[in-house]
Amino acid sequence: NLILVLNGPNLNLLGSREPEIYGHDTLDSIAMMLEDQAAALGLEIDLRQSNHEGHLVDWLHEAGSRQCLAVILNAGALTHSSIALHDAIKAIPVPVIEVHLSNPHARERFRHRSFISAVARGTISGFGARSYALALDAAAQLRQ
Ligand code: DQA
């Protein structure tokens, strides 16, 4: 019943980073919110962040080998560039839920392309920190 919540580049700066776009919640406060929600759902979460693409690839592989229930992935800007993350998601049997705090489609053109979406189970974006809560709810529904 383990769900990895993986966060990519610059998301360690949440709270102070462009708060008009990303809100005032920090990654720590999002982690605390998700811990409570997961406990209520009978799930376990492990939230991680890295600024390095390879760490995210390794963690996706780990989710596969540990047969996690799901991965919730905010790949940050790697969403728009990373074929390595695309391939890693394809390589594992675990459903990946793509999340974004902002709605990339309402922003610059270079954010309109996602290498994650085509291989994700689904995408939730535009609801700030709530995007993660909605994703965790969706992940809970994947239990049969
Ligand atoms: C983001 C959107 C990306 O375009 C951006 O590069 C991020 C954050 C989001 O959560 O809204 O770093 O993934």
UniProtKB/TrEMBL annotation:
One of its GO terms (biological process) is amino acid biosynthetic process. GO terms for molecular function: 3-dehydroquinate dehydratase activity. It is an enzyme of class 4 (lyase). Gene3D superfamilies: Dehydroquinase, class II (3.40.50.9100). Substrate binds at residues 74, 80, 87, 101-102, 111. It comes from the Bacteria. The keyword Coiled coil does not apply. Pathway: Metabolic intermediate biosynthesis; chorismate biosynthesis; chorismate from D-erythrose 4-phosphate and phosphoenolpyruvate: step 3/7. The record marks 17 as: Transition state stabilizer. Keywords: Amino-acid biosynthesis, Aromatic amino acid biosynthesis, Lyase. The keyword NADP does not apply. Belongs to the type-II 3-dehydroquinase family. This is 3-dehydroquinate dehydratase. The lineage of its organism: Bacteria, Pseudomonadati, Pseudomonadota, Alphaproteobacteria, Sphingomonadales. The gene is aroQ.
